[in-house]
Each structure stands twice: as structure tokens, then as C-alpha cells.
Write a structure and sequence with these properties.
By secondary structure, the protein is of the alpha+beta class. It contains nine helices and five strands; from the N terminus they run H-H-H-H-H-H-H-E-E-E-E-E-H-H. Helix 6 (95-110) runs parallel beside helix 8 (197-211).
């Protein structure tokens, strides 16, 4: 798991910092040192197992399994097929933060508290439908994740995880922007083949709002997430 001397050094410093956070000033502290060391090692292991790169990769591989193992279901019951994808993808995204970003500061402030909450649900449903439908067309694809060799993410609240989508005929870069959340890491934006989905949706919301004279109620009523094929075909 640790892989390189650099990471062994990082582990040593992690444990050492835990042991010296409260100085070992008496015999009892010395006797407790092994337990503290074991606890620090266990905490470090949990951090590594729940790192953002593993988070993205494990869920991506689950999606690949759904795509490859349920090809017949796509033809016989498309809704059930897409729901399998949604079950994996939905918990990965901080929809509240993403929806607020899509609305933009101006329209977020114009909207009522109820309308903001309403858009979170509207946006979530439309995005999941769009994403599931798009993924369903990538049945024979593979996804590989670029893992970082160090553990610098431990001290960060936001990271970028990069993947490559191989459709068999072409390869496309995918970049996930993640933010640390109380429940773990959550996606706050995705860039596919150079197409920034967050920015694309924000521009769509702005254009839709303008076309409805900045009436938030009508804007929400007519919202549909549409990122096309993000340049992937």
C-alpha cells in the first residue's frame, strides 16, 4: 500500500506527530506509547483506504461492471438499467453545492430558500438521467485512474482526480474536482474531454433564466440538464 520510501517516511512522521502531540512526560505515557502508535497507524490506514483516488476508482469500476454485465437489461428494461448506474453515482456528488454553483450567485440570491431546495432535486434528477443515459452507450469501455504516489490529499480540502475513458476506438480524459465532506469526499465538478460540465450547466441556466425574463419559477420549471455527448462519440 505504501509503495515508496517517501511514503514510509510520511507514515513515520504521521505516527511521530501523534505520539508527540502530548509529550511523554512520565512512565505511564511511555507504557501507553505502543497503544498510541498502533492507534495512529490504524487511523493512517483508514485515511489511505478512504482516499479520493480510491473513492473515484472503486465507484468507476462498479459502473463498468454494471455496463458490461447488464447489456441485455439495457434493451429489456432501460429504466432498471439506468437506476443501477444512479445508485452508484448519486452518493458521489455534492448536489447541494453543485446546484448552487449552476444557478450562479445572481440567481441563487434571487431564488427563495424553497426554490433553491427545489432546484437541487430538479438538477439531481435531470443530471442523473443524462449521465446514466450517456454511460449506457459506453458498454464496452474501460476506465483507468491516475493515482498519486504521495498522501498530500490528507491536508487538503479539495483535490483533482484524473481518469482515462477508453471506448475501444478512442481515449478521453476525465477530471473530477472533489471536496472533502463530512461524509467523505464528494464530486463538485466534472470535466470530460475538455468540456467543463459545471460551467456548461451554469451557462445553460443563465440563458434559460434570461429567456424567461429572470423568472426563477419558470426557469426551474423548464430546466433540463444537457451536456450533449461532452465530445465523446
Amino acid at each position: 500500500m505504501l509503495g515508496t520510501p517517501k511514503n514510509f517516511l510520511f507514515l513515520f512522521l504521521f505516527i511521530f506527530n501523534n505520539l508527540t502531540a502530548n509529550e511523554l512526560s512520565d512512565d505511564q505515557d511511555l507504557r501507553d506509547a505502543p497503544n498510541k502508535s498502533f492507534k495512529a497507524l490504524k487511523e493512517f490506514d483508514q485515511i489511505i483506504e478512504n482516499n479520493p483516488y480510491n473513492f473515484i476508482d472503486s465507484n468507476a469500476q462498479q459502473m463498468v461492471l454494471v455496463l458490461t454485465k447488464n447489456a441485455e437489461l439495457f434493451e429489456s428494461d432501460r429504466e432498471a438499467y439506468e437506476n443501477k448506474i444512479k445508485d452508484i453515482f448519486e452518493p458521489m456528488i455534492d448536489f447541494r453545492r453543485v446546484a448552487a454553483s449552476v444557478m450562479g450567485k445572481k440567481y441563487y440570491l434571487l431564488a427563495t430558500k424553497e426554490q433553491r431546495a427545489e432546484f437541487v432535486e430538479i438538477f439531481k434528477d435531470s443530471l442523473l438521467d443524462t449521465y446514466a443515459e450517456t454511460l449506457a452507450q459506453w458498454g464496452d469501455s474501460t476506465i483507468s485512474t491516475k493515482f498519486e504516489e504521495d498522501y498530500s490529499f490528507i491536508e487538503k480540502n479539495a483535490v483533482e482526480v484524473k481518469q482515462t475513458l477508453d471506448t475501444g476506438s478512442s481515449k478521453y480524459p476525465i477530471s473530477y474536482k472533489l471536496r472533502r465532506h463530512e461524509e467523505g469526499w464528494k464530486i463538485i465538478n466534472i470535466i470530460i474531454n475538455g468540456v467543463n460540465l459545471g460551467l456548461t450547466f451554469r451557462n445553460q441556466f443563465q440563458a434559460l433564466a434570461i429567456s424567461h425574463n429572470e423568472d426563477i419559477k419558470l426557469t426551474l420549471k423548464n430546466w433540463v440538464s444537457d451536456a450533449g455527448d461532452a465530445g465523446i462519440s
